Target: Lrp/AsnC family transcriptional regulator
Amino acid sequence: MKIDRYDRAILSALQTDARLTNQELADRIGLSPSPCLRRVRRLEESGLVAGYRAILDARALGLSLMAFIQIRMDRHTPERFENFERHVSACPEVLECHLITGQDADYLLKVIVQDMDGFQALLLERITRIEGVSGVHSSFVMKSPLAKTALPL
Model:
């Protein structure tokens, strides 16, 4: 889908504040409300706008330990990968799962838990028990000076 400067402005504004009313959005990007709403709907229908979410404060919810876990698999077969991905998708503590290359690992997980006890339970009772997991390496986040959700437009 080809997008123009108005579409980019809409996408940028929605990434910053998805709670804008159509009138506020139209005013911000310099369109009247009707064409603005048509553009937003077209962007949603095309899949460029995949959804709207609230960004929660993890620490306020008692989730203070974030870690990245590199996972090594014993075999590189579609079945092994599908099984692993299905299991980690069912873990609410797993925020992201990436199949990677260029490392000594096959997957990189971003996880968040309350504390080290929660991490130990996640790792030992769930992740390492997934068939095919042959190695793990964990790195703990000390500080996150930059955490974006907005894509560069």
Notes: Helices lie at 5-16, 22-29, 33-46, 78-89, 116-127. The domain at 59-140 is CATH 3.30.70.920 (Alpha-Beta Plaits).
